[in-house]
Amino acid sequence: MLKTFSLGGIHPPENKLTSSKKIRRLPTPKLVNVPIAQHIGIPAEIIVERKDKVIIGQVIAKSGGFVSSNIHSPVAGTVTKLDKIIDSSGYKTQCIVIRTDAKNPTNFEEIEYPLKREIELTPKEILQHINDSGIVGLGGATFPSHVKLAIKEGIKIDHLIINGIECEPYLTADHRLMLEKYDEIIVGIEILLFALNIDKAIIGIENNKKDAIKVLKKAVQNHPKIQVAALKVKYPQGSEKQLISALLNREVPINGLPLEVGVIVHNVGTIFAIYEAIQHNKPLIERVVTVTGKNVENASNFWVKIGTPIKGLIAEVGGLPEGTRKLVNGGPMMGKAIKNTEVPVTKGTSGILVISEEEASRGKAENCIRCGECVFVCPMGLEPHLLMNLAEKGFYEKAAIEDIMTCIECGSCSYVCPSHRPLLDYIRFGKSIIKKLETSKN
User: Fold this and answer.
1) Mean pLDDT of the chain
2) How many whole angstroms separate alpha carbon 419 and alpha carbon 440?
3) Angstrom distance (rounded) from CA 267 to CA 127
4) Could you give the C-alpha distances from 181 to 165, 184, 187, 212, in angstroms and in order?
5) 3-class SS at 430?
6) 137-167 residue pLDDT tens
7) Cβ 65 vs Cβ 41: under 8 Å
8) Taking the domain 123-280, which CATH number applies?
9) Per DSSP, what are the bridge partners of residue 204?
10) Of 274, 310, 331, 389, which sits 20 to 30 A from 396 (CA to CA)?
11) How far apart are the first and last CA of the chain?
């Protein structure tokens, strides 16, 4: 019997419409809008000025602190302005606008690096280079990778877990990466095992990706430290705590970190980015993005340069279908609606989902019938109906006591609610207010 996590969870329709679509390279846009806040933590500090010439991979904004990340130019060109532009959050954020140099062929040609297996850097050099390369978690959280890998003395890590779950409906960026870059991913895992002196790595993949399981099992045949584990399909198994529970039967404490149970978790996209940084000196300047939707003409997966306006991706799949109601950055469960197509792709953009009027419509919110479904499916063991009521009424201190901040915002509660109550909306709102209140105290 396939393993999975024990508490809560759901199985929404998978809609993996692009799982058979090979990753294509999106044409480089004439302008890129590169935000300086593409990670959890302090925004990077801009170190270029208007009219500066930049080359591909050049640092254009330096890490603003330990929990921060460098930003590199994804293109060769000229900085035209430093401006505030609406990002996927719906708020204006500081961006570096670069006009692409049309005469520079590297902007438009894919560079195919040969597979490089030999690791030449020392563990200390590897960790520093990951920091320098601006690598963050590409599963959506965008936590700076060098922070996660900065293990304090006395903490023993015995497992590296590679997250190949991609349980969010519609998204297939990680799936395709595993199929097309499996050798590079294995080398990336070896790099981290060496750098952190860890003896075991497990690649967790849900059983709806049998082709990825097959190719990776074949790829690790001669790697005794690395194994591939097929898991039962259940959402939100891609969350760190749920994945650790499924694979190792270890429970990360409330408000705790995987380090506390001897584990580090990295997404497969992050592992590939680490491989490219260490083996080919390539910083994080592009990523795979799924562009999909039931009515999208040519839904597919793309290599996209950071800072590319989303309108370029929409054009590449045939434009917006008639009757489109909403564009979502990410998947339907945890993604957030996008205000316009000028919003740039960032390090955390795993997909763009095009939703029709019919799919986007919500049922009318009614009174809670105390069915308990939201409690039953919550993977964190919370009471979403109670948390919504507390946030709605402004009882934020009480909501904090009831552990609202441990909510992983998976949306399972809203998905199953027969009364169509906007549970996650209010929980997110409550969390944001509590964060502001805590910040004001410090």
Assistant:
1) 95
2) 36
3) 17
4) 16, 5, 10, 10
5) helix
6) 998 889 999 999 999 888 999 999 999 999 9
7) yes
8) 3.40.50.11540
9) 163, 229
10) 331
11) 49
SS (H, E, C) 24-81: EECCCCCEEEEECCCCCCCCCEECCCCCCEECCCCEEEECCCCCCCCEECCCCEEEEE
Question: Where are the chain's structural domains?
Answer: 123-280, 373-441
Residue 376 dihedral angles phi and psi, to the nearest 5°: -60, -35
For residue 86, give Cα distances in angstroms to 28, 151, 216, 387. Answer: 21, 36, 39, 30
Task: Give 26's contacts (C-beta < 8 A, 6+ positions apart).
Answer: 289, 302, 303, 304, 305, 308, 312, 313, 316
- Over the Cα atoms of the chain, what is R_g? 21
Instruction: Tell me the residue type at 94.
Output: Q
Sequence length of the chain is 442
- CA gap 250, 253 in Å, rounded: 9
- Mean pLDDT is lowest, of 62-66, 115-119, 159-163, 232-236, for 62-66
Strand, helix or coil at 119?
Answer: coil
In one letter, which amino acid is 14? E
Whose tokens are 């994804």? That residue is 74
Q: Can you tell me the distance from the alpha carbon of 60 to that of 165, in angstroms, rounded to the nearest whole number?
A: 33
Pairing of strands 77-86, 53-54: antiparallel
Within 105-225, residue ranges assigned H as helices are: 123-132, 145-148, 173-180, 182-196, 210-219
83: its two tokens: 């401006």
Q: Could you give the C-alpha distances from 437 to 236, 306, 401, in angstroms and in order?
A: 29, 33, 14
CA distances to 25, 111, 290, 386, 435 from 285, in Å: 13, 13, 17, 42, 30
d(CA 293, CA 327): 10
Cβ contact 242:9 at 8 Å: yes
Structure tokens at 436: 């502001």
| Strands (E) located in 347-400 | 351-356
DSSP-derived 3-state class of residue 316:
helix
Model pLDDT for residues 285-338, shown as the tens digit of each residue: 999 999 999 999 999 999 999 999 999 999 999 999 999 999 999 999 999 999
Residue 442, pLDDT score: 63
CA 66 to chain centre: 20
Give the H/E segment covering residue 276. Answer: helix 268-280
Per-residue pLDDT for 4 more than 90? yes
* Tokens found for residue 67: 């929990």
